[in-house]
Design brief:
The structure holds two protein chains of two kinds. By secondary structure, chain A is an alpha/beta fold. Helix content of chain A is about 45%, strand content about 20%. Chain A is built from twelve helices and 14 strands. Chain B is globular and about 55 Å long. Classes of the chains: A alpha/beta, B mainly alpha.
Chain lengths: ~400, ~300
Amino acid sequence: MRTRRLWVVATAFTLIAAACGGDDEVTPPSGDPIVIGIIADLTGAFATYGNSLTRSAELAVKEVNAAGGIDGRPVQIIKEDIQSDVTATVDKARKLVESDNVDLVMGPIGSDANDAAYQTVVQEGGKLLFYTETYEGGKCDPLYFSFGAVPAQQIRPMIPILQDEYGTNVMLFGADYVWPRRSFEIAKPIIADGGGTVVSELYLPLIADDFSELVQEVRDKQPDYIFSLYPALWGAALKALDDAALLDGLGVGTIFLGDGDYLGIADLAENSYTALPYFTVAEGAAAEDFLTAFQAEYGADQFPSGGEGVGAYDAVWMYKEAVEKAGSTDPTAVAEELVGLSFDGPTGKVTMTSSHHLEQTINLVQARNGQYVLVDSFSDRDPEEACDL
Amino acid sequence: MVALLVLPIISSDRFLIDRFGRYFLFAIFALSVDLIWGYGGMFTFGHAAFFGGGGYIVGMLTTRSGWVLPVPFWMALVAAVATSALLAVALSYFVFSGKGALRGVEFAVVTLAVAVIAERLANAGGSVSGGQNGILMQSRLGIPGVISLHRGYGFYALTGLLLVATYVGLKWFLQTRSGLIIRGIRENEDRVDLLGYEVPLIKRRTFVLSGALAGMAGALFYVHEGIVSPTAVGVSASTLVLLWVVLGGRGTLLGPIIGAIILPHLTASLSGTLLDTWLVVVGVILVLVIVVFPSGIFGFLSKARDV
């Protein structure tokens, strides 16, 4: 009896050891692939962000496949270049949905293209759309998910720091379209609650010819700091302020200037604050691993920009978990499993809220001596989107 | 031509059929440009103002509310064609009449300005034009509950018929007295003028016809897309159509149709397969075609046949 019991125990241990050791040998995925379509801005005005998004998604897919795929099935990406163009977005989104019959569509970058993709992929095609770019928020649909940052997440942590350092009078300066306008509507109560005063609110065309209006406004209203959502030509706007000798002592905060964009205008953006989910100076082992894996794949001088890249990386992994929980790729079933799902991504824990926007970490950096320095990291930022699904 | 007719029979890819429907509308747009440039000698840098403008008119009339708005799509389509024609009338009075009548480069510069202004207006139009994000449209082509012409085969048939009608219509127009005079104006405007023909009137007539055609094609195109945004009326969209015309063969009727199908199809296919190099490949093909066949693909083919 005794020997026999020992034998049983020994066998059990051997089996457990074998099971644990088995983790190193993942069964390679097999069967029909799960197909992710990416409408990617690989060329044109948004090429930097489109490539960052696509590369991060491809990195995640490679890792997912190495870890056994989704439910044992391999994952495949079909990417289509939408050329930073709305008409091409509609055409390519329709191709992915109708001709390639993909399971999920990711992208694009521009918020007009997002409108177009939403209409084509979700409303017309009945497929899931994962949008990973920083945007104005406000979209609310059972099949639409945002993995990027939305205004309240970035604005709330940044305003008090700018106010402490520079003073309470803020100028809101934005490009004349929906993202800056909606962001400023969200910023105003946050500024007022903190005892700040909006002394000026100015919008110029996305691609402005001259910035004399901006210069005049800063001269007249004497803000302590500028909160800027002027993405495309921010360097030119800063240059105009610098030429007018107005930049000294003027505080600057943005929510768009990721590492790549910053490097191009580092001499003008000194002391600027920026809040985004991801910077290369983000802390934590996961952030470092992500950067290392990204650079191993694409080269040591390459890095994912701001938010859309890390959002796409999170999105692929969370899609895997949701599909496995749902036991199918049915869009509605996957959407239900996504809500409430958490994932430990490069920037820490992220959770998909019932508003279909992502609760996540926002990092705040300041440009000091020509490089970004991490000022603070704010975990579990609520997207504060009113949508309730 | 035959290949296009049998395409729906040999291919079951509904999306591909749909894509060719789009090219047919591009082809009508290209024909409208060829009419004034290829046949009338009036080089335009701003014709997307009519094509995209048609889309904007339909978008505004079918989605905005107040007064009689929103109106049904077919009414908006008529309005889009009428507005494009009126814009062309206004513009042509301004540029073709009187002592300061513009020609050649001067005319091209005015059309360029039209496209720039149109794009700015679209961008700055606030809640009327939707600003940078443009207008999302829910209208569907067809008769609700009876027949859908919005996507796939229905759309292909609708646009195909319109293209054939445009082709036949223009072929007829070019044989009329106006059509012959406009071709004369291209060759030597002064001589036609001295012979006593009413040059400004004929130029206006042709320009208005061209504007209305572009407006119609654009209205249908952007409803099919479901969105129209500022780049639709801008300079780059206006230059793209020139490439289609040049590639296919300026001053012919089949050439622009060929160009407006081949180049967008090449772009759409290659930008999905040669992700990193497609722009270079398309560029090289364009340069080669233009160097080897200066009169365009169709121009070359028809010359080869004549010889």
